Amino acid sequence: MRWWITLVILVVLVGLYVWLYLYTRKRQKKFDEQYNAAKERHEIFVLNKKVTKESAQNRWMRFAKFKTYHVVGRVSVAQKVKGIQMSRMQTVNFHTTKTEYEKIQVNHKYKMDIAGNYIGYVHAPLSSAKGKSNGKSGTDKGKGFFGRFTRSKKANNSK
């Protein structure tokens, strides 16, 4: 008799797990459809990023705190209204996943796939045109901490 109770509890738990898995998979598919329909690729200059703990919108989970990943970036938004092209810079607060959050560094420009205020995918950072035109890489080990203001070898030997 005791093993029947254990078996029934095990079957109920497995059934609950399968139902939860199928339910979350259905919600993820719905979200992916919405994201793919609305995503656009923009160049975003990242100003700030932070991790916050927020409560869920669901009334059953409202007391639980979940980590959310925010990225504040500057985006150039362009729009054509009655034949007039208008564009402006706008600061936007984006939400993203942990893996995309870890790819992003502050004060860098990235191409990102965004839909609304959600960052779906971060592409490689854009290299600056200034570094390419001079033919210099960003890391020059010959210079000291203060760049061109370090002492030359002759000055060091004259001591």
TrEMBL record:
Domain of life: Bacteria
Comp. bias regions, Basic residues: 150-159
Keyword Membrane assigned: yes
Compositionally skewed regions (Low complexity) per UniProt: 128-137
Transmembrane segments: 6-24
UniProt keyword list: Membrane, Transmembrane, Transmembrane helix
Region spans: Disordered: 128-159
Name this protein carries in UniProt: Uncharacterized protein
Source lineage: Bacteria, Bacillati, Bacillota, Bacilli, Bacillales
